[in-house]
Amino acid sequence: MARNPTRQVRVGPVTIGGGAPIAVQSMAATKTQDIEATVRQVQLLEAAGADIVRIAVDSRKDVEALAEVRARTSATLSVDLQENYRLAEIVAPHVDKVRYNPGHLWHHEREKPTRDKVAFLAEIAERNDCAIRVGVNCGSVDPVMIERFGDDDVGAMVESALEHCAMLDDLGFTRYVVSLKDSDWLKVVAGNRRFATQRPDVPLHLGVTEAGMLPEGEIKTRLAFEQLIPEGIGDTLRVSLTLPFEEKGTEIETGHRILDDIESGRFRGIPTILPEGLNIISCPSCSRVENEAFIDLARDVREMTEYAREHDLTIAVMGCRVNGPGETDDADLGLWCGPAAVNLKRGSETVGAFPYDEVLGQLRVELDALIAQQSG
Question: What are the residues facing 333 on neighbouring strands?
């Protein structure tokens, strides 16, 4: 397939961009400190055909575990720094790529200029032979950018990515890729198109975040990829599905299947608008999930809300405190899951926190109220 003429970025033995085959990657869904489970999952993803496997770290204990994982696998590893960018200094020796979120970076050490934080990350990456991914999500763009762009959240996402690219370029660090993600595949398409027009030299990582369960998760992702990849946009990708931990290899298999279909001209149809009716968003099961009951809850929500499928409403089910609070704001109803309770929201307003075995009943009360409001 024809590709945009981006520069090449080396991630360990994998080349991204510059005409290289599109790399397929996923993220380990285990707790990083559970070394046995994490090693097993890295091996499972690698066996499924993963070119890169991402692991999350949020503490020094996570980093200690990551070092042991690194010693026991030859897989190409990326790390998600989550909310503590300073961990990069002790993480980088064990991985091939470091991913940071500009929105999270803004919130950490607010008194420090963002450029100084980016310079720290670039210096650490250079010293340890690592690539960088600038991972921008619509749901976690920094407040300054949100205020500047107002309702144009795609514009805010693209500008955030462009700003960080400019900082890295000024620092002389060009070994980076960019991702622009949202749970709405139309925004993913719009954002990546805008960015590729302005920075055709930068390799792009594609993905629809919180795509959800099968088959809907594959459909949403496929719709975005079927528009972008034939246009030459996209150099690496992830399919983000809500799956049991032992089935994470399905993300890799699905990614390869979508690529094969696009290359062979087997398209599943590309509508220009989102379909009407109930839209359930759920994030992929990853190591940030604080209670594995989240996966069953997402399935129960889909089953319980079947009666409302013709209503134009969005329900978001998030598995952790990192994405949950912010990325449920735009949903009509949102659930973000903690260790022992589920936080239920109506738009950006919190309804309350409920035990896992009680939240479905409360969700139905809120859903019925919204349906009555629509009908009224």
Answer: 315, 346
Query: According to the 3-state scheme, what is the secondary structure of 139-150?
Result: HHCCHHHHHHHC
Domain annotation covers residue 274: no
- Do 99 and 170 have their domain in common? yes
**Paired sense of beta strands 23-27 and 314-318, if any:** unpaired
**Boundaries of domain holding 295:** 279-375
Residues 125 and 27 grouped into a single domain: yes
Give the three-state DSSP class for 234. Answer: coil
Q: Are 93 and 223 found together in one domain?
A: yes
What is the pairing mode between strands 341-346 and 176-181?
A: unpaired
User: In this predicted structure, what is the pLDDT of residue 324?
Assistant: 64
Assess if residue 272 is contained within a domain.
Answer: no
pLDDT at position 349 over 60: yes
Buried b or exposed e, range 81-118, using 16+ CB within 10 angstroms: bbebbebbeebbebbbbbbbbbbbbbeeeeeeebeebb
**Which is nearest to 239 in space by CA: 294, 196, 286, 276?**
286
CB 190 within 8 A of CB 224: no
CATH number at residue 219: 3.20.20.20
Residue 273: its pLDDT value, please?
43
pLDDT in tens, 164-186: 999 999 999 999 999 999 989 99
Domain for residue 4, yes or no? Answer: no
Rounded mean pLDDT of the chain? 90
- Domain assignment present for residue 300? The answer is yes
Structure tokens at 221: 């992702």
Tokens representing 64?
């200690």
What is the pLDDT confidence band of residue 331, given thresholds at 50, 70 and 90?
confident
DSSP structure string for 252-295: HHHHHHHHHHHHTT------SSPPSS-EEEEPPP-TT-S-THHH
Q: How many folded domains does the chain comprise? A: 2
| 41 in the same domain as 139 | yes
Question: pLDDT per residue over 12-70, tens digit each?
Answer: 999 999 999 999 999 998 999 999 999 999 999 999 999 999 999 989 999 999 999 99
CATH code, domain with 364: 3.30.413.10
Tell me the pTM. Answer: 0.79
